[in-house]
């Protein structure tokens, strides 16, 4: 339902049956209820007698007074306003918004998985343990590492756990060291995680070709540096070509190499970071391995390590003892627990299902097609939007507003205008090393037809920037709301709606 031909008009069925939904407090009427139950035979207790007066409220809570139908319509309509990967292309760079196959959901909802209690005895959860054991193993094999933990709930938490292991390793040698090297193209979570682990961040400048040079690392690496955190492919969508050389420089000074592997969409089945000298990396199962992502829901930042860090993995790990699977808590050097129970188990079932469904050859094709799609978009739009680094990219490419700025149009305007064409805006103003960045990751799950429609829309927007920039600067025109005051929304959030006539 995108509006390439007539962008200024609403698309088919877009307006007529979409309702201007009020807040739930504006629905309903005083005294209206969502249920009716028979009179309770047991007399109600007097709260004043049962509960400390200081704890009792003096006014009725501000709750909406609505019927069941009011509630159902309200939330169903709101859900229909949602834009998601199930409704259209979401080209968010560094987020891997790929389609999540429905078979994952089918398997995750099997009652044997969904009804498990996390404290059930080991003998009753052999299937779940077996699944986790194999998933740990698959992730280690895919990345060329020796062992893995599935506990962290997000990429950033995986980074934190990985750095704690690096710290524990150095501490065991007698000195936890003070610094971590991080290139300026890193994801913002990297310096944050290093700081949270008590390390001082030393920022390394990306070279003119968009990759980190071995010289930059050699100049900064010393014996007070615990290691380097490097994203490969980096956030410019480029492969870090000097990875092996950089790893050697770091190892020679006793440091360790952390790889941010949140986005493995260009590497799975093609290259293993373990072969490039990496000692520890986290995966985002909610990116590469198709578990639901976004909205801050449960994720999984599984971490794989080389032998040198294996003793420090969080407890418990899942092990095989003969025919049986078991938790291993007997790990004296472990950094401890990083998440309640064993991580977000439902996500592990989905990622396992995906890996089994794809197989080795399927995963290889994921990378090949993700890279092909990204380069198709890059080549198709290179005359319309400036590319900070014009070379072949990996799974994503980074444009900028350098051309459009001449017409007074910015990246933010272009992003807003994309909504009029039926596309979710991409990641913008990130990575920071590209001014006015517009980072596009279409992933392998989009068909050539979808990509062509997207490219056509982007070309049309580029034309508008030249010929009618005012249209772009006033965008969006079609969605329910126009430009929002994002600063006000962030600084003065409205948590509670106070009804006008309570
Ligand atoms: C998404 C991402 C992260 C953070 O992952 P969360 O699950 O959001 O914490 C870290 N690094 C890179 C490169 C990412 O793309």
Structural commentary:
The protein is α/β, with parallel strands linked by helices and 502 residues long. It has a domain at 104-357: Type I PLP-dependent aspartate aminotransferase-like (Major domain) (Aspartate Aminotransferase, domain 2, 3-Layer(aba) Sandwich). It has helices at residues 47-50, 68-81, 102-108, 111-114, 126-143, 155-172, 189-196, 214-220, 243-252, 345-381, 411-420, 448-467, 469-473, 486-491; strands at 147-149, 179-183, 200-204, 225-231, 256-261, 280-283, 303-305, 317-321, 324-328, 386-387, 397-400, 427-428, 438-440. The strands form three sheets. It has a seven-stranded mixed sheet with strand order 1-7-6-5-4-2-3, sandwiched between helices. Helix 5 runs parallel beside helix 10 (345-381) and helix 10 (345-381) packs across helix 12 (448-467). Bound molecules: pyridoxal-5'-phosphate (PLP). Residues 94, 154-156, 187, 189, 231, 260, 262-263, 284, 299, 301 line the site of pyridoxal-5'-phosphate. Pyridoxal-5'-phosphate binds next to helix 6.
SSE layout:
Blueprint: H1 47-50, H2 68-81, H3 102-108, H4 111-114, H5 126-143, E1 147-149, H6 155-172, E2 179-183, H7 189-196, E3 200-204, H8 214-220, E4 225-231, H9 243-252, E5 256-261, E6 280-283, E7 303-305, E8 317-321, E9 324-328, H10 345-381, E10 386-387, E11 397-400, H11 411-420, E12 427-428, E13 438-440, H12 448-467, H13 469-473, H14 486-491
Parallel strand pairs: 2-3, 2-4, 4-5, 5-6
Antiparallel strand pairs: 1-7, 6-7, 8-9, 10-11, 11-13, 12-13
